[in-house]
Amino acid sequence: MPTPAELAEVTDWMQRHLAEKSTSPAVLDGLAESANRKKIRNIAKNRAGFFAV
To answer: Which of 24, 31, 35, 43 is deepest in the core (most CB within 10 A)?
Structure first.
């Protein structure tokens, strides 16, 4: 599993792609906390909530 620091180092495009496609709660939580852009953090936060149910 990538750490939040590792996720912060990848490109914005990769962060957005992971936020939109990942099914890993750990990846989505990491992006929700540390993504470079607010839009990416919001996508990850919303999707993380979906997988938590």
So the answer is: 31
Q: Which residue has the tokens 């936020």?
A: 19
1-48 confidence digits (pLDDT tens): 788 789 889 999 999 999 999 999 999 999 999 999 999 999 999 999
C-alpha–C-alpha distance, residues 40 and 15, integer Å: 7
| Distance of alpha carbon 15 from alpha carbon 6, whole angstroms | 11
Are 7 and 15 spatial neighbours (Cβ–Cβ below 8 Å)? Answer: yes
Q: State the pTM of this model.
A: 0.85
**Cα distance between the two ends of the chain:** 21
Task: Name the token pair of 23.
Answer: 């099914």
